[in-house]
Amino acid sequence: MTRKPPPNPLITVLGATGTGKSKLAVELAAKLNGEIINGDAMQMYEGLDIITNKISPDERKGVRHHLLGCIGLDDEAWTVAKFTQKALGIIKEIRSRGRVPILVGGTHYYVQSLLFRESLIDTESPIDKANSTANPAGSYEKFNDPILQAPTPDILERLREVDPVMADRWHPNDRRRIQRSLEIYLTTGARASDIYEEQSHRRNIGSNNIEDKDNDQYPPNSGGDIVLEGRGASDIGVLEAPSRNRFQSLVFWIHAEHKILKPRLDNRVEQMVNDGLLSEVESLQGYLESQADHGKVVDQTRGIWVSIGYKEFSSYLAALASGNASEKELKSLEQEAIEQTKAATRQYAKRQVRWIRIKLINAASVAGIIGNVFPLDGNDLTQWTDNVELPALNVAKDFLAGEPLPDPAEMSPTAQEMLVPKRDYDLSDRRDLWVKRTCDYCGKVTVTERDWERHVKSRAHRAAARKGVMMMMMTAGTPAAPETR
C-alpha cells in the first residue's frame, strides 16, 4: 500500500527549560531540511540574550530561526493571539520553500495555541471583529480602560461587579489573571465565566479533528470558541475550546527528572552571571529610567519585565541606585538575587512539566493525536545521541515519509507513565472545583478544593491552628491543656 507524506506537517520540540530543546531542534532541522520557529515568549525580545537564554549564532549551525529577537522594548507585549497569527504566516512561508517547520519553545500555552485550532479573542484587532452577540447593546468599553492599570484590589472589585464567578476564581493577589478576566469583559461584553461554561459544554459533546485549509488565519468566531491568552512567562489560565488539530503534528517531549535537572539549572544560572547577566539587568533598569525621564510609564506586569533573571534583582538595583550601599551590602544583595533566580528557574521548570502533563497531554488525548507525542529521555546527557537525537530523527523521518510510527510508550522506561494525563480533567472544565476559601487561622486564601486540602495538611497550618485554639481558650478563661510529648 502506497503511503502519502503529510501535506502540512509540523514538528514540535517541547519540555522544561534546560532539557536541550533548542539543541534537538537544530539537529532535526539540519538533517530534515527544516527551519525553526521560536515558541519562547521571552526569547522574542531583541537583545537580552543572556536573560532570555537565547540560542547563540554558533549553536544555530546555520539553521534559519524565526521569531527570535523580534520585539523591541518600545513595542507592545505580544499576546498569544498575535504569536499564533505570526507563526502561522511563517509556517506557510517555510512550506512554500519546500522546507519543514519545526516549532521549539518553553512557553507551552503558545505551543498549544499553535498545535490546536482554537479561536482566540485578539485584543489587538478592531472590536467589531468580536462576537456581535456578546453585547446586546452593540457597544463596547475601550480595551485600554484605565481600570486595568489600577491597583489590584480595585480591578478585583470591578471584576466582582461584572463577573463574580471569575472574581472568586482567582487568588486576590493574582493580578494578571484578575486583570485578564476583566479585560475580556471590557473587550467583548461577554463574561469570562460564561465563556468557560460554553467551552466546557462544547468540549463535553466532543469535537472533530479538523485542519485549517489555509493555516494562516483563525476561523471566524463561532460565538463561544474563545481562549484567553497568556500574559508573561507563567501558567496563567487558558480557556480552552475543543481541541482540533491545526496540522498533522509530531511532538517530541524531552524530559529529565527534577532531581537531575536541578543542578543543571543552577549551573546554567551561574554561567549566565559569568557571561554578563548583571550588565543586561542594569541595561533594562537604565531603559526604565530613561522612559521615566520622558514621562513614559512602562507596564512591568507583562512581557520581558516578568522574565526570570530580571525581577529577582530589584532589591540589588534599588540599593545600587541609592548610592548608599557598601560593596559588601551590594555583593550580599547580588548573591541573594542569584539564589532567587535559581529558585525561580527551578520552579518554572516544574510549572512547564505540569502544563504538559495536565493541559497539553489532555488536549492531545482529546484531539486523538496522543500517538504522535513521543517522550524522550533527557536524563543522561552523555547518552544524548542514543536516547534523544537518533530516536527523534528516526521517528521524524518516518513521520515525514508517511510511514507507521512506533509506539510512543516504548521510547523510554518512563514514557508510558508520562503519556497518561496527571489529572483526568482540565481545571478550566471543572467549575465545580473553583472553591475559594480563607483560612481562619492563617489568613491564607485558596481557590480550589485541592489547594485547600493541601493547605490544611501543611505543617504551618497545623501550628497556626494549635496556636489559635490556645488563644481562644485563654480568651474564654479556659486553661489550656498541657502539651503532651
From TrEMBL:
GO terms for molecular function: ATP binding; tRNA dimethylallyltransferase activity. InterPro entries: Dimethylallyltransferase (IPR039657), IPP_transferase_euk (IPR030666), IPT (IPR018022), P-loop_NTPase (IPR027417). It is an enzyme of class 2 (transferase). Its EC number is 2.5.1.75. Keywords: ATP-binding, Cytoplasm, Nucleotide-binding, Transferase, tRNA processing. GO terms for cellular component: mitochondrion. GO terms for biological process: tRNA modification. It catalyses: adenosine(37) in tRNA + dimethylallyl diphosphate = N(6)-dimethylallyladenosine(37) in tRNA + diphosphate. It holds the Pfam family IPPT. Catalyzes the transfer of a dimethylallyl group onto the adenine at position 37. PANTHER family: TRNA DIMETHYLALLYLTRANSFERASE (PTHR11088). Belongs to the IPP transferase family. This is tRNA dimethylallyltransferase. The lineage of its organism: Eukaryota, Fungi, Dikarya, Ascomycota, Pezizomycotina.
